[in-house]
Amino acid sequence: MAGVPAQQGMLGSSQFILYNGEIYSFGKKIKGDSDTDKLYYSFLDGTLEETLVECDGMYALVALSGNTDQRNCSAYRDPIGEKHVYYLFDNQYFAIASTPGALVELSRRLGILRYNEEALLAYFDRRHFISSSNTLFEGIRQIPAGGSIKFNSDQWTCLEIQPEIPLHLRYFDKDLYSVLSRMSLVEYSEVLEAELSDCLKNMQSTCIDEETGLTVSGGIDSTIVAALLSFCADTVPDTFSCSFGDKDPIAKLAPRLAAKIGSISHHEVAINLDSYVSSLKRCIRILGAPVHSHSLPSSRILAQHLACSGKKVLYGGEGADELFLGYSTYNLINTNRENLYQPQSAYSAKVINGISQAPHDDSEISNRLNAMLKSSVDMFIESGMSVPHAIIKANAILDFSEQLPMVGLTATDTVVSDCGVEARTPFTRSKIVKFGLSSPYKHLVHNQQTGKPIMKSGLDLLFRKVTGNVPGNKSGFSGYPNETAVFLNEVHTWKVFEQYPSLKNIFGKNRDTDWKIINTEWFLREWSFG
Fold first, then answer.
1. CA angle, 429 as apex, 424 and 433 as ends, to 5°?
2. In the prediction, which pLDDT does 318 show?
3. DSSP class of residue 406?
4. pLDDT digit string (tens) for 344-370?
5. What is the rounded CA–CA span in Å between residue 258 and residue 461?
6. Tens digit of pLDDT for each residue in 274-292?
7. Cβ–Cβ under 8 Å, residues 385 and 392
8. Which of 50, 102, 271, 318 could form a disulfide with 425 if both were Cys (CB 3.0 to 4.6 A apart)?
9. Other beta carbons within 10 Å of 299
């Protein structure tokens, strides 16, 4: 069957691969026509891992070899973590899936589903992510971005391999940093526009305009992507935005931005509380975990509408905030080099568990994150960056390599793929990652005399250029994060408070904390825990 374009999976006498993703450039000439074909032939000649290192794209790949008596299985995930590979391994079972929910359901049917309470405590202890690898269930893990696993059925072993080269060392270019540092902000923004445009042309060449949908949330990132993509398309693709009724002013801003981009057809997708709750519950089933971001149910509803309109690809701006310092916290991070990594919640899991001792912490995770931060900080300082700016950039890299694969890319692509739609973003292409990580702080955060900094200042300048300063306030996917509690009945009946009574003491005091508590309650109910 080898040689058949896009055959899934590729099967030989004793070798088999299954591939999900898209390779935009292989970096070298390889035998074969389709991506799957080329990867299969690389597998046959023993150069698969070398090929994956050199290519630019998003992928989840499983390769099997051997016979029925002994099977060897290797699985790989792209360096940014845009695609996802989860695996179940214990003393009886081994399974791989692209969504954790599938493995959770399999474990439930096999009678081996074990809830990982420590992982849930860590979920409350950190700002966004549980861990880039751990899940809320024993024996179910995610391959780290850029990592792989090696399974041997004869010895019944499964080795998880971390990426050989950390993200910041792989993509930071000291010479590029020096060149960009000598530019003015206007010059920097012009080069960034050219890089993004070139990247989007390459990405768009793999699908036709009629298959593409452009999101217009009113924010900088998705609007820039939509505008630049419309410039390189033969016809401007349809644009889509969410509307949450009276609570969301984006309903007025999005059509103006779409008109400025030149959209022939703009679709406003109305979302109400009922549809949001239904989508939230489905997202929890797919992800097998509480939903980290309240935008995910909205994204899934948007993807449903795209699929009904015949669209297969949804372009967005995920990754830009981490890459180009879009969050206000990046201007306020504690710049103490002696204690770089700190859990970023206002309370600890030990307090949640009713124990007034030191904060809950996973020393293995903390040690790894601290080592990565210190390595990044040293790299930036060596390149001439000030200590505070180096620490802020290093924290952004930590979010890009740890948080984004778990919260942004993996989750978004997983929930929209449930609708038959693929999520894409240019901010995870190697060329743009290299540009972002090598960008000087002065082009990312512009401190004004008013005292309020302009975050993502290079992208902000580009946004103003492509939209002509269309006035309006961005609200994005505001969603209905905490209103979903009305469907859960009286608080005293909640499972989460039965398991963690001290959570009652902080419920209602912080919007983000409330979202985690409410979401955990939905999670416990969906999977019948508590």
1. 125
2. 84
3. I
4. 443 444 444 443 333 444 556 667 677
5. 19
6. 999 999 999 998 888 888 7
7. no
8. 318
9. 27
Mean pLDDT for the stretch of residues 381-404: 83
Nearest-CA neighbor of 78 among 64, 62, 61, 63? Answer: 61
Q: Which amino acid is at 129?
A: F
Q: Are 460 and 346 in contact (CB under 8 A)?
A: no
Three-class secondary structure of residue 51 per DSSP:
helix
Examine residue 219 and say whether the peptide bond preceding it is cis (omega within 30 degrees of 0): no
Domain ranges in the chain with CATH number 3.40.50.620: 168-330+404-480
- Rounded Cα–Cα distance for residues 5 and 22 (Å): 14
pLDDT 10s digits, 235-278: 778 888 888 877 665 667 777 888 888 887 888 888 899 999 99
385 pLDDT more than 80: yes
Measured distance CA(364)–CA(366) in Å, rounded: 6
d(CA 431, CA 444): 17
From the candidate CATH numbers 3.40.430.10, 3.60.20.10, 1.20.120.430, 3.40.50.300, the one assigned to the domain spanning 10-166: 3.60.20.10
Q: Which two tokens stand for residue 37?
A: 């074909």
Q: Tell me, what's the pLDDT at 349?
A: 43
User: Exposed (0-12), middle (13-18) or buried (19+): which is 132, by Cβ within 10 Å?
Assistant: buried
CATH numeric code, 168-330+404-480: 3.40.50.620
Please check whether residue 279 is in contact with residue 297, taking contact to mean a CB–CB distance below 8 angstroms: yes
Residue count of the chain, please give it. Answer: 530
Q: What is the largest CA-CA distance in the chain?
A: 71
pLDDT of residue 360: 44
**Eight-class DSSP state of 154:** T
Q: What are phi and psi of 455, to 5 degrees?
A: -80, 155
Question: In Å, what is the CA distance from 500 to each residue of 503, 512, 516?
Answer: 6, 18, 13
Comparison of pLDDT for 30 and 249, the residue scoring more? 30
For residue 272, the one-letter residue type is N
Residue type, 397: I
Q: Tell me the average pLDDT of the chain.
A: 81
Tell me the one-letter amino acid at 398: L
CA distance 113 to 508: 32
Q: Which amino acid is at 120?
A: L
Pairing of β 266-270 and β 238-243 = parallel
* 66 alpha-carbon distance from chain centroid: 34
Give per-residue pLDDT as tens, 162-180.
Answer: 887 777 788 889 999 999 9
Q: What is each CA distance from 82 to 76, 414, 421, in whole angstroms?
A: 12, 10, 14
Q: Are 376 and 168 in contact (CB under 8 A)?
A: yes
**Interatomic CA distance for residues 389 and 395, integer angstroms:** 10
